[in-house]
Design goal:
18 strands; 5-stranded antiparallel sheet; alpha+beta; homotetramer; globular
């Protein structure tokens, strides 16, 4: 398919299907001299893994990462870092009942149209399990960013109609609450909503917000590799994403220039913006203020409710998706969005290093 | 900057600044045997050019395209098509007053941060004039798509608070009304709104909608080169874009799976969807129904109103942007969005040709 | 390092080091519907493995391939094919004696210069074991080419001063004789030469010839992605390669145009060339006749003879390379060259599919 | 064709045909802050232009470069540098006689096979005039390298059987003698040889040598983007190249390891090699010593002698190429090889900047 690689210098290539032997990622362009072990990656994998709450799929796998290359004596060598996770809980038999049915909202029909073939076992490559590879890569990117003072933080902003109240923002809750909301009251409300949705054999969508702090100004390459464009492509490549916005986002349509522009002022010798309607991006490049992104996730297409659909052979039928699935994807997608943002930024930080002749001279002379 | 190319097999490379000698694009991968002349491209350029109405910049240029390569005897040869437009109406002097000022909402500060340098003449490379190159490429892509029965149509959906009424949709109006709305009543309202905005030395934003019809199913490459991801990156690479959504877009957050999934049925031997919440995309690939996209454009950052800002040397100041600028970018951006969509689709149609072993055998054996 | 990927649509990404846990390759862009199993790949791996003769390293590993993704029910799915080989015979301890020494002719010094770090265990990523990944990818490419009637055949042309006699050419010998020469007399002579070389604690170089038959005319993309340029880059990316030539190669320097040009004639309704000085390439594209390539391999840099060198700390020393190494690389590199050629050709066959507007219309309309 | 771009961060995209309106190149990734004007580029163009001697085509054009973008106030801005040369001396009529004939040794047949179409005017895109774009890009790359203390020098090593004597090497002669040999005696001999060749309605080939000095060690990215592999692809992408070799090149086949390895020693605190059989490359990366390359150029395929060939319609015929052509391509190709080497090196110097975590931290912290 040749769509499995992302990035230019820091480039990830993912592989694997939901019910194949394993999934993984090759991360090329990891700089040499980064301390790295499985212990740096596993916590990110665990964030993506289903929890123990009512909103999680009963499919439980340890998702144990194994680093196969690129690390020697605990340090990266500059060689590609290959990371693999074995599948251990495949129940392919679960899917035989639907092997000829195009599930509504899934990629069954489009994969079959493209390849004349479809891996019906849990969606194959189009499964959410594919994101596991992105998270492994994201963990490495995050480790690099941490050394550069850049923080990427994603969390659940909204599930169905339930939004967080930012005055109650508590970052520590993101990794401890089942909804990945940084607000325990909203989390409780959202859990109640999800409980009701599940009882109705249905599913829910939501919104993930990402805030990136510590970015130097000027990151992103003009025209087609803008930071905004690269982040959009990165996020929208995640299954189930239907919209992405930066800063004031869709609200800019009704705003006036005088409301939307952010005034510049000086503060302690540094240039600052008095507001941040731009979401940290001007001309598609980082402007030094926080980058804010909202990603909109559709409701899980797998529902127990009976739906009308067709068979591969062109006969009409109905389907009710049994098997293991989450009533909402949002909480597990939080770390995936965060990972894609981290991977994107590391790559653009690297290409930025040769933007000035002075930088080249400083490096080589 | 190395961000000036887009696409894989059908690849465009743009160049040029607002006030340099010329702008242009090199389109590589144009298939041989396409009838092509300047007359195919000029109408698209004219759609991007400022109109004669009250909402247009007084900067008037013919934007005359010249094809410099890749066409012989009226047909493309398979060689790169190079297209150039000379700048004829540069008034660099207009900008000397702001040469050290970082204009709010513009890329002045971020370019200077990146390059230690800034082309203050009309924004240089970050100017909306850069999109001229995209439109020239889009015209070629559109000509290819037309021969394949694929139609890409963008129009103004909303300006400030004024939206079109789809029951009055008249496609012919898109290229005749100053707002590029397909609804003359909404156009009048929007013009009134813009008039008020302008009187207040301010500017307006809006929304562009794109509908792509005739797409075969299965276009787009899984994971990172999904059609959805590629289109998002393509659109968000256009200056002033702050959000993009497909199908039901941001509304999916509150929808339930049973509301958001589109049922499949048979119709005259073909598989059809009864609804199109997905916006023509499943698993990131085209599902054969119309692809629907909405792109959110921020208000023109150039306003006559006085704004607080800083100088390059770190001193605080104020600025009121005189010179030539539109009170709203939306109408001129319509053809730019359309162009980027067309370019993206042609490229993914090409990579799709080798998706099946049977296709390779059919071609070579 | 971001140099671990090769190809555009059919793209391989390799990973792994000589003494790490495993090596492997991700092959993206494999068309769906190709019958594929480990049994298709293993024979190619075995050709690369050391033999049992006197010219082979005593390091013996089964190099057992495992397909981790991209195949379902014995057929490729269009998803990336991930292939892994576990290292089972690492003796890292062998290398501790030379961990601070820059071995002459090896990449120790250049890796250390680049990364501030060096994996001294058998050369790490610069080891010949890296080519294992290329061969796994080559096996898949060869299977595709076979279905398209294209044959890629490499063999040893020369070892040290001993060349084959083409009048004795017997293809079946390539995979059975220790030298991979298609001529048993030359093989015996070469073995005697290698025996003498080995007794002198030294090593030998040689030449690999490749003949590609069945190529349609017009493959390769003009200017930078010429078939000739792509093959050159592919072959010269193999360690130890010092020269590559096509057709008459270096001899063209002394030839005259009238001697070097190949006349065209008709034969049974087809255009043929009366000679093939061009080596099957005109304007860098395949001309329908056999493509002929010669690749020059330097003598194994690891020799038992004592050599002058320096330590990492800048002190002078001497080194005699003990451990496991071949007196000649050529026979094991034969299948590596063949593999890189096959991978290159598959990719260019794919990009060629959209070269004409008629092809696009034939595919989509 | 999508083969018109070369490089990753420092990326050139060329366009134009022999008899179209113009030719040019877009250079993306030029660092900001490089002093640049047409005067920096023109001398390189003039080196590529035919001279006034007996060995030059009578086609005389000024090849006047025009910089269309990327430079402001005499300095590069970080935006793509677009350079154009208008064709002024096209005599398309010269070619009408051969418009249906496939000229032996030319790309007529392969272009027609690929595109179903052929630009018969002087070879179209396959003409040597295409290299003009490479030289313009090379001039910019050379200017960057000069600021980094890296020198790329190509010259004619051999024409037909006449080689230079290195004991007479005089660099200043390269740009003053008609053969571009750095040895006036060899130049005289070569001119005599060419005179004889021409009288016989024939043409000659030759060899170009390139020496690159001042390279830091560690440049080039392991595996597929090795400096050796990248340079090979770059050089072999030039029309008429049939072989390329590094250091001892083809001679390594007969050498022994003890003869081919270069011993390391210390010299004034620096690591040096006592010999340079490797041609400045170990493991495909620069080893700090001079990089030496030889490129083999076939005799000009255009000859006055009558040759057998076929027509487009499949009828046999003969052809004698009248019109303007050089009896030898070598002298004009010298600056083309030099240019491709310079472009390749700049790109790999840039990607090398993020090879170490320490470099990233040094840049951003």
């Amino acid at each position: 398919m040749a769509g499995s690689s992302f990035g230019n210098i820091f480039r990830i290539t993912t592989w694997g299907e939901s019910h194949g032997p394993a999934l993984g990622v090759v991360i090329d362009g990891v700089p040499a001299g980064l301390s790295l072990s499985e212990a740096d990656i596993q916590p990110f994998m665990d964030r993506r893994a289903p929890g123990n709450s009512a909103i999680s799929t009963p499919r439980k796998e340890p998702d144990q990462v194994e680093i196969l290359s690129g690390v020697f004596d605990g340090m990266t060598t500059g060689c590609p870092v290959s990371i693999m996770v074995r599948n251990t809980s495949q129940h392919s038999a679960d899917y035989s009942a639907i092997k000829d049915i195009y599930r509504p909202g899934h990629a069954d029909y489009t994969y079959d149209s493209k390849y004349g073939f479809r891996d019906y076992r849990g969606g194959g490559r189009s499964s959410g399990r594919e994101t596991l590879s992105r998270v492994a890569a994201g963990a490495v990117a995050q480790k690099i960013l941490k050394e550069l003072g850049i923080d990427v933080c994603s969390y659940t902003l909204q599930i169905g109609p339930v939004s967080i109240d930012k005055s109650r923002f508590d970052r520590s809750l993101i990794t401890s609450l089942p909804t990945c909301m940084p607000d325990s009251e909203a989390d409780s409300e959202a859990m109640a909503y999800l409980s009701e949705v599940r009882e109705n054999n249905d599913s829910a969508g939501g919104v993930i917000e990402t805030v990136i702090t510590g970015m130097p100004a000027g990151i992103g390459d003009p025209v087609f590799n803008k930071l905004s464009a690269s982040l959009s492509g990165a996020i929208m490549s995640i299954g189930a994403m239907k919209a992405v916005e930066f800063g004031d986002g869709t609200a800019v349509a009704c705003a006036r220039g005088s409301e939307n522009n952010d005034a510049f002022r000086m503060n302690g010798g540094s240039i600052v913006k008095l507001t941040n309607h731009s979401g940290g991006l001007l001309g598609g490049m980082s402007d030094g203020s926080d980058i804010t992104i909202r990603s909109y996730v559709k409701p899980t297409p797998s529902i127990y409710k009976t739906q009308e659909t067709v068979n591969r052979d062109g006969s009409e039928t109905t389907v009710s998706i049994s098997g293991r699935h989450d009533p909402v994807i949002v909480p597990r997608a939080v770390v995936v969005v965060e990972s894609m943002c981290a991977v994107t930024i590391v790559d653009l930080l690297m290409t930025n290093m040769s933007a000035k002749m002075d930088s080249l001279k400083g490096f080589y002379m």
